[in-house]
């Protein structure tokens, strides 16, 4: 532990602090200007660090606006509702694990009622009404992202069809009514 910390400190002083090592300059006859220079360099470095942080955040928002590859298109059907269009899909594929009438629901998520879906799981919302392309539920049924999260789960579970996923997308895009 201690040795590791010593090595880390040495690395830090060798590689990170060297560029700021103005001790030679500071020992000169005019220490004040040198100090001011150091302050300036520090300010510029800080500004650069914050700048790249801001760019990283901006990049993220740009990515969020980009289309998600491998996502089946939303159905063009209008007037899609949970009760008429979506509940039958969930009833057939998800009730082994997400049924509010059973004592336990996986991830504390119920998919047999509209309120249950809107309430979400133990971590909160799983759909974003109006934005199916950024709804977690759509990602897990379209098998995008971490395979551990793909739904439905379980032995012999079959991925929903593109038409079913498209209908669920249309329902969310139309406000999840
Ligand atoms: C065999 C059981 C099982 C079936 C069937 C099942 N799920 Fe799940 N579901 C789980 C488990 C377990 C979790 C928690 C996963 C975790 O913790 O990674 C989960 C989590 C979820 C989540 C939250 C995922 C996240 O990462 O936020 C969603 C959304 C979800 N399921 C949707 C569905 C849908 C839609 C269906 C039907 C098409 C379905 N599940 C069918 C077991 C199941």
Write the layout of secondary structure elements.
Blueprint: H1 2-17, H2 23-26, H3 31-65, H4 82-93, H5 114-119, H6 136-141, H7 162-173
Heme C (HEC) binds next to α4 and α6.
Query: What share of the residues does DSSP label as strand, in percent?
Result: under 5%
- Radius of gyration, CA atoms, in whole angstroms: 27 Å
Distance between the termini: 57 Å
Total number of domains: 2
What best-fitting shape do the alpha-carbon axes yield? Answer: elongated
Main beta-sheet annotation: none
**Beta strand count:** 0
Hetero compounds: heme C
SS-derived structural category? mainly alpha
The topology string of helices and strands comes to HHHHHHH
Quote the average pLDDT.
81
Number of helices: 7
Estimated helix fraction: 40-55%
Poorly predicted runs:
1-13
Characterization of the model:
The protein has 177 residues and is mainly α. The chain has two domains: 2-65; 82-173, no CATH class. 51% of the residues lie in helices and 0% in strands. It contains seven helices and no strands. It has helices spanning 2-17, 23-26, 31-65, 82-93, 114-119, 136-141, 162-173. The radius of gyration is 27 Å and the shape is elongated. It starts with a helix and ends with a helix. The relative contact order is 0.12. The model is unreliable at 1-13 (pLDDT under 50). It binds heme C. Heme C binds at residues 90, 93-94, 96-98, 106-107, 109, 111, 121, 126, 136-137, 140-141, 148-149, 151-154, 157, 160. Residues 90, 93-94, 96-98, 106-107, 109, 111, 121, 126, 136-137, 140-141, 148-149, 151-154, 157, 160 line the site of heme C.
